[in-house]
């Protein structure tokens, strides 16, 4: 690693800014500002710092429309907004997707637009922690805020999650390293456990690594529950783990004072999907008969949880909501994005603060390539290659303030530190313009 | 804008108006003594007219509401209503969406609702939801009873600093008053434990519920907050808990009320029904309503709201997290939990209150016993601890039970389990509520208990929050069992609901959507002490919370629009 | 008997929603009524006659006298028979989501494959699918722990994942194979699978019966063996042959029963 000199050439510092990357929503960032740029960031991890500082690279600056030759050409705001509004106003099965990297304030406008045109609204949970939401809806949700882990936990388990790569400050700021009120020796007062088929970077620093076999999550946790109920395990090896290890692990989990389980896409995306989380939740509920256990999903974007919370309080359901019949409907597999795209039902797709081009399965993207796509974003990305109208937004948490919700549902108001580029517009303004213009078109009919 | 509601039959207990035929006049959002001839006439001849309802305890906005909504799509689906030209779509039966909450209270003729439990760390969430709820003003109550700073001050006996802390925190979270839930018990839940009774110390902190309630009640009176200490006592839901309830009420008996407040009470005991059980287990459980009602009758320093069981399938949600876990052990239904660092905890679980079930029938009867045994309606408020004992849309149904002894007998004899008759005194209670008492327990009393002078009544100067119902009290026998269904129907769809002079409901339908206001208390005169206290606690805050103090507060843009109550603490 | 025949003439990739066209709703309708009807498609409604040729013959006193025949690929026609209480529906082709969902009576036959959610929250009646069904056949609504409570579903082909999630009554028969987690969270009811099952049937089940006549590739530790029964009688259903009996899922103190064909599952003996 090359040694880089500390940044000393800055005009002022904006303290206590919030990171706009992962669901850790670290709100202790200091932005070193010079001119109208963030030239240094303190306390952020490399993921957050790189997003905050290197945003000029590949920045979307000007509205664009794809012409008859298939090339994106620059246009003025009115032209772009009018074209997008026309597409939305005339659509029969529109889908407004994304939202997880913009503010609650912008989502409000997006929901208004959804209600007005009878669209489907969905966010990244549909490809990420949707199975978590489904499991929670089946069996319950024993949660805590991150400070509870910091102050009380003496055992922390990560499964299907590799925070050292995906949520780099999670262990440092919240779960394992900090000196908590009841854990004044920090790391030394806690046992760190990883359940993961891979010897991930998190596994490397754990006290215990349980490498059950791929797709074996459900069977493995089922066995732990059986042991808790006093059963003698029949098989010698379950999901790749020797039964003695399962028994030892179960004993250890029963005998801590406060255990916390964090989980991620290793559970949501392997064979049993939401049932992996379903049974993990029931395990945590079982363990509460012996000692204190809680869990939390490791949300990947700084406002993915915010969208679920927002949509729940506004319209009752957390994601994948269809307004086409004038009232909200939530039906997994029917009102969720990937299914709608695979079935080729969507005729106009709006993506904001998300990158389906990078993240969606190929089949879904094939359909996106065939229909009009409106993109509201701050960066070029694979989705820009699919877009027919591009509307450049501004950076929440750096250029525009807004509300977000951390992975543990703590609401945070994200400050702004610099002004956005002159040619860009705030996400909330863009969506509101679309709403107004769609209304004009529909009312004129 | 001027209105004159003509010839209604007005019930306004605050101003001693008991079923008088009189006009109600409105100008510029206030009740006035006269209006010009340009005033718009609303003919409400012979119809029932009252101030708009005031709810003193409900769970309508905040983090645990969203946990509930997110994890109960089956409840959300149950209450789906399509959008109209004026209203957005509604969802939810026991946990309505924000729009649905506002519309449904508004259709019932309510104008002000208390959000009963706000955790400071997530107060912004509560305020965001209030901003989404239309047509009702909200008085949020901030949780203090398991807060680490509070526990420390109580342990030290440091009331001065505790008062400054409370004043500062109400400003930070933009809340109206204080709330205490299962003091010390929800902190014990941080380790999976609970406390039992008011003298059981919290693990590690070594303070008891009694000490916390006493200290905070004294602080409440030192500051002169408009509302009193509002407490959810220890031992909720446990057979034999009535003694804990009486102990809690008695613990603050000697504390003098601040002379400048309009309320009478120093302690408001909430959802009393859940705290009035006798017996030792669910096998021999019986009613503890009589000793509790007796205490309240003899002690004017206490008020209560009932938390009446409505015999529905609903969702329980409370900051009494260990109690929710106990329910999970009983029913096995999907249990949710949310512990909040340094402050409090919450739990949720669906519950089915069945009239066929012995325990639920007992609970139903106990609530009614309390209504009927507490003599002074000014000490009682009608609630269901919504949604815990039932959703708030059932208030009209409960009113129909209170007004008809025959209806209650019908239910006791043919609809509910016999425990209701055998283990309570309900069959012997034939008292009926008249419209004056109904108006008291749903308007006048809650407004006074909350310390709100400008609502809950129709005197000149009050906010023009009015409800008119399609019922002629002079030609209607509310005591007849057959009329119970009529009362329930009519009170659920107001002929007119007026909010600050705007007609928001007409003929049971929303006619206008207005923004709800956030009511909060800004204590004046403690600034120096607050500054000192913040300096003292800042090291602890910085080390043990996971957010920065600068980001912890509720910014002004979250409480738009608001009404700020400047409380002069020096008085 | 009123016979209504809808023959597909235009396929819409945006699905049509047939929740307003169950026998209970349309038993009085004439051909004109059908032609006037605007069927929901996305956020709009279009005339049903854009998509179907419509024939109506005979009279009906009530839904029980109705026979609806849908000819063609109904792969984008959702909610066929949703909520019906009586009558007969025949689909000569594949069917889209929610066939017979919330059904209370009557019968539906799909001469093809069916998408997910066949018989969701079913309370009564009969559904027969000649081909395969996808996920969540006979399931509950997400979050609702009380699922399918009555009625009979017969699948001649294969069943996808999470068959009969939260089942609380009724019967399901699958002739072919079945994917993971059949009968998960079941509290009552009867499932019989003729073919092989991949993994983990009966996960977190509290009660009910699951019969597997083929081979089970992975059994959960939550199930305790309870002997070998020859020609068992399960709630009045007589099976022939030897079956290994398991009780579980003990993780939820369950008293449900798995019956595995002993011949095909020798490795478990």
Describe the structure.
The complex is a heterotrimer of chains A (445), B (571) and C (269). Chain A has helices at 46-53, 77-89, 104-117, 130-139, 146-152, 163-166, 170-175, 201-204, 217-228, 243-254, 265-268, 274-287, 304-315, 337-342, 356-359, 362-368, 382-386, 427-444; strands at residues 12-17, 29-34, 37-42, 64-66, 72-74, 94-98, 120-123, 140-144, 155-159, 191-195, 208-210, 237-238, 241-242, 258-263, 292-297, 321-322, 329-330, 348-352, 373-377, 389-392, 402-405, 411-414. The longest helix of chain A is centred in the C-terminal third of the chain and has 18 residues, at 427-444. Chain A is built from 18 helices and 22 strands. Chain A has a nine-stranded mixed sheet with strand order 5-4-20-19-18-6-7-16-17. In chain A, strands 11-10-9-14-15 form a five-stranded parallel sheet. Chain A folds into two domains: 64-126 and 302-397 and 419-444, 3-Layer(aba) Sandwich (Rossmann fold), CATH 3.40.50; 130-297, 3-Layer(aba) Sandwich (Dimethylsulfoxide Reductase, domain 2), CATH 3.40.228. Chain B is an alpha/beta fold. Chain B has one domain (51-450): Alpha-Beta Barrel (TIM Barrel). Chain B is 34% helix and 22% strand. In chain B, a hairpin with a 3-residue loop joins strand 16 (335-340) and strand 17. In chain B, helix 6 (159-173) packs across helix 18. The two termini of chain B are 37 Å apart. The model of chain B has no long low-confidence stretch (mean pLDDT 97). The mean pLDDT of chain C is 96. Chain C is mostly beta strands and 269 residues long. Chain C is 4% helix and 36% strand. Chain C has one domain (2-203). Chains A and B meet through helix 4, strand 8, helix 5, helix 13 and strand 17 of A and helix 1, helix 2, helix 3, helix 4 and helix 11 of B.
Q: Globular, elongated, flat, extended or rod-shaped: what is the shape of chain C?
A: elongated
> Spans of chain B with pLDDT under 50 lasting ≥5 residues?
none
CATH architecture group name of chain B: Alpha-Beta Barrel
Largest interface: A-B, 62 and 60 residues
- The neighbouring-strand order within the major sheet of chain C is 5-1-6-8-9-10-11-12-13-15-21-20-17
| Number of β-strand runs of chain C | 21
Element-by-element helix/strand order of chain C: EEHHEEEEEEEEEEEEEEEEEEE
Considering the protein shown, what is the CATH homologous superfamily of chain B? Answer: Metal-dependent hydrolases
Q: How much of the residues of chain C is beta strand, in percent?
A: 35-45%
What does the average pLDDT of chain B come to?
97
Distance between the termini of chain B: 37 Å
Quickly name the level 1 CATH class of chain B.
Alpha Beta
Strand percentage of chain B = 15-25%
Sequence stretches where pLDDT stays below 50 over 5 or more residues of chain C: none
